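**Folding the chain**
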Amino acid sequence: MTAGKPTSLTTANMSPPLVIDGLQYCRWTREVFLHMREGGIDAIHATIGYHELFREVVGNITAWNKLFAENSDLILHARSLSDIRQAQASARTAILFGLQNCSALEDDLGLVKICFDLGVRFMQISYNRQSLLASGCQEKNDSGLTRMGEQAIREMNRTGIVVDLSHASERSCLQALACSERPLAISHAIPSFWHKTARSVSDEVLTALKNNRGLLGLSLYPYHLKNHGDCSREDFCAMVARLAEKIGIDAIGIGSDLCYGQPDSVLAWMRQGRWNKPSREQEKQPSFPPQPPWFQDNRDFPTLHEGLLQAGFSTAETEKITGGNWARFFEHSFSPQNNTKQNNTKQNNTKEA
């Protein structure tokens, strides 16, 4: 935290600060869009696919196009930072498309460019389990990044899709960060020094992310929080302050992982995917946990902002965490990079059989 009188990002950039959430998967309704406007949210990275194959993702985009048409006074589809600024100027919320798994690629890397052309701007390399690209955080054997994963990261770098390491394994994260020529994101997670889960980010990955100039979106999903739904705002914001000391204020954003309105059956589908057969211990359908009282839905973003200020962050620092850092990240991440030079020293030492 800085000493002396803070300088607001509004003054520094000569434009209003942006409020951005780096990941949500709500049951998308007009009520949710109204909540976004009440909370003053300018942009949200919205999950449009988990285990869906490419054609199914296209179907989800078709459904989103209908939502955009029916709620054009509240939301718009964003592909760039300028689109987000347009949404802010027109008192709407920009929606960025993201995939929480790489299933949509099937086994064809040519679909990376097609996904970009359809508006996808984030893609995770795995979702808990092994994928064609990488090992997930719940695998017993952490095999890391695959050869296809290395090539997919290079193609996402080239086209302008952000490589998202949420739900990936430790080794996969470290190898992806070493392989990538562009900054990567962990859009929704929590550092393990505060609360350790299979998805928590270790100090080693935090350091690699900092060196990569990447960004960590802090999750507010109760299973990720210390004491779950009983986590206090003060404890959460104290964690943010400690994290800032470790990796710097510029590497931190919010990725709430808010799943407002989703039925419990969706949680079971998210966890099981297409092939996983639950054991007897897992047959009981899981349920979404209650949110902490200070962050129930999108209307509570001002409460989070207030908590960060009370934790000692300046106005300028708080504006970075609640949106400014994502805005800077988006500005340099969504454009194609056709002249990327391959850095052979970053590649893993995988040899052909």
